[in-house]
UniProtKB/TrEMBL annotation:
GO MF terms, alphabetically ordered: malate synthase activity
Protein name: malate synthase
Domain (Malate synthase C-terminal): residue spans on this chain: 425-542
Keywords noted in UniProt: Acyltransferase, Glyoxylate bypass, Transferase, Tricarboxylic acid cycle
Pfam entry (one): MS_C
Organism from which the protein derives: Pseudoluteimonas lycopersici
Occurrences of domain Malate synthase N-terminal (ranges): 23-73
Gene3D superfamilies per UniProt: Malate synthase, domain 3, Malate synthase, domain III
Active-site residues, record numbering mapped to chain: 171 (proton acceptor), 459 (proton donor)
Length: 543
């Protein structure tokens, strides 16, 4: 790593910044660093403990157990309570655009006409130090209204007036990730480096430190999307963090608001509990379907009967996904919370009208399913999809939300949430998983966390499905493609073989890192244990 060690004497040399990026000094001021170091000291122990709990739970599933509703929280599920009122700025969230945090994306997303913009440090951002600093800088300038950008061709991007902009919601990274560029409590006398701080606390803490007062003054939050939670204890930790930030920054109680992504299988069994743990500050749950599918594979990796068919066949019509999304609507509406839909992976296809129409039709059908199921809003990955989503939600959701649709007809039992799926693995599906993993990883290592591949949006969540499937299919052994060929490592090696030469001839993002990506995928796929996240080993390879 081309690291520059920056000592911060004002904080007693107890925090080191390893890295250098334009604009960093204006963000990582001594008071901001003192604020971050304090977050680390207060909450790091609990975070570590919760990550250990995840591992213990997983060990139970690996030993043959299956997720279930908790006996110790039955009273929370049965109780008659509601979340705190939702602020006006988040009352109507029918269309939300999501995307990485580089300045052009931020401007385009805020100007896009969507109700809200989820500025994403998670699935769609490769967390290079340069990307993180640039993203925090762009958001800070967006909050004060000065952000602008000029591209290489000289085209200028500027923000629309605030009343015409989407409401900003920031997604910090998940609890599993460290921020290796911020080391807290080094002890040089004993030759000890500091501890890496939590990436979640870095993203959220730094954003709040610089923007909370301005946003609160305009009744615009700060608002957050919280990713990849697995339990109500993790939600409770977030709640303590948010309460602490409010106190430290002298904000009113419960000024910070959160929407939690239900995107892990264990969390689907604790939706009520998560809402309850954050009840003063939560405004909704979201169906993070791509990570959810990944988590289903990962959680049930030892359960051969729950292996999934190829990605293209894992649609929201699969019973386990239908049950999860409908349970989310029912749970949210009972508690007065928004039940947000998720992302359709199709994106516009500029050079083929017929293919473009087909892609838009699939997005439309997905949004129609969501609004009919009772969702109060949805996500789009690209500005050109906003009219499609808006048209569907405007036609079927007449008020700002549809909380009145209680969905008491939904059962979504434990068996429904775990229901095995029908389907096949085709050669094309297998090879596509290999290609997506390699191309996505190469782009990610090159600093790009979201790329179009074969006209689908691919990010850390969608790529994880492909990676976890390959591991599961190959390690279960004895599986066959629909043409009868064995699914084995020879098939995997053959799929990898021609990729470098093929991709070298195409202008794919991160092409110079394709061989490195192949190496990472090869190790992850051969490993005895399924790695928790592909971004963990990959993170050690980026600046
Ligand atoms: C599983 C999940 O977590 S989903 C949430 C995380 N994933 C995302 O947020 C996906 C975000 N989307 C994207 O990053 C992009 O749309 C991609 C990578 C999928 C496609 O990007 P591109 O190929 O560059 O799209 P395309 O060339 O059609 O873009 C056209 C214009 O729209 C802009 N644009 C595209 N997507 C977005 C977006 N999500 N937000 C804002 N602007 C966008 C581009 O910047 C470009 O602007 P310009 O004309 O001013 O240069
Ligand atoms: O974050 C969203 C998802 O689908 O994963
Ligand atoms: Mg996700």
């Amino acid at each position: 790593m081309s690291a520059v060690l920056q000592r911060v004497p004002e904080v007693g040399e107890r925090i080191e910044i390893v890295g250098r990026a334009p604009g960093q000094d204006g963000l990582l001021t001594p008071p901001a660093l003192a604020f971050l170091a304090d977050l680390h000291r207060r909450f790091e122990g609990e975070r570590r403990g919760l990550l250990e709990s995840r591992a213990r739970r997983q060990a139970g599933y690996d030993a043959g157990g299956l997720p279930d509703f908790r006996a110790d929280t039955a009273a929370i599920r049965a109780g008659d309570w509601r979340i705190a009122p939702i602020p006006a700025a988040l009352a109507d969230r029918r269309v939300e655009i999501t995307g990485p945090v580089d300045p052009k994306m931020v401007i385009n997303a805020l100007n896009s006409g969507a109700n809200c913009y989820m500025a994403d440090f998670e699935d769609s951002t490769a967390p290079t130090w340069a990307n993180l600093v640039e993203g925090q800088r762009a958001l800070r300038e967006a909050v004060i209204g000065t952000l602008d950008f000029v591209n290489q061709a000289g085209k200028r991007y500027a923000l629309k007036p605030e009343a015409e902009r989407a409401v900003l919601i920031v997604r910090p990274r998940g609890w599993h990730l460290d921020e290796k560029h911020v080391l807290v409590d080094a002890c040089p006398e004993q030759g000890r480096r500091g501890e890496r701080m939590s990436a979640s606390l870095f993203d959220l803490g730094l954003f709040c430190f610089h923007n909370a007062a301005a946003l609160a003054a305009r009744d615009r939050g700060p608002y957050f999307y919280l990713p990849k939670l697995q339990s109500m204890e993790e939600a409770a930790l977030w709640n303590r963090v948010l309460a602490h930030v409010e106190r430290e920054l002298r904000l009113p109680h419960a000024q910070l608001k959160a929407t939690v992504l239900i995107e892990t299988l264990p969390a689907a069994f604790e939706m009520d509990e998560i809402l309850h743990a954050l009840r003063d500050r939560i405004v909704g749950l979201n169906c993070g379907r791509w990570d959810y599918i990944f988590s289903y594979i990962k959680t049930l990796r030892a359960h051969r009967d729950r292996a999934l068919p190829e990605r293209a066949q894992v649609t929201m019509a699969q019973p386990f996904l239908k049950a999860y999304s409908e349970r989310l609507v029912r749970t949210c509406h009972r508690r007065g919370a928004h039940a947000m839909g998720g992302m359709a992976a199709q994106i516009p296809i500029g050079n083929d009208d017929e293919a473009n129409d087909a892609a838009l039709a699939r997005v439309r059908a997905d949004k129609l399913r969501e609004v009919a199921a009772g969702h109060d809003g949805t996500w789009v990955a690209h500005p050109a999809l906003i009219p499609v989503a808006r048209e569907v939600f405007d036609a079927y959701m007449l008020g700002a939300n549809q909380h009145e649709m209680l969905r008491e007809d939904v059962v979504a039992s434990r068996d429904d949430l775990l229901r095995p799926s029908l389907g096949t693995i085709t050669r094309k599906g297998f090879e596509n998983n290999v290609e997506v993993c390699v191309r996505y990883l190469a782009a990610w290592l090159d600093g790009n966390g979201c790329v179009p591949i074969h006209y689908l949006m691919e990010d850390a969540a969608t790529a994880e499905i492909a990676r976890a499937q390959l591991w599961q299919w190959l390690h279960h052994g004895g599986l066959h493609l629909d043409d009868g060929s064995p699914v084995d490592f020879a098939l995997f090696e053959r799929a990898l073989l021609n990729l470098p030469s093929r991709l070298a001839g195409e202008s794919v993002p991160g092409v110079s890192r394709v061989r490195e990506a192949i190496g990472v995928l090869d190790r992850l796929t051969h490993a005895e244990q399924l790695a928790e996240f592909l971004t963990l080993p990959a993170y050690e390879r980026i600046d």
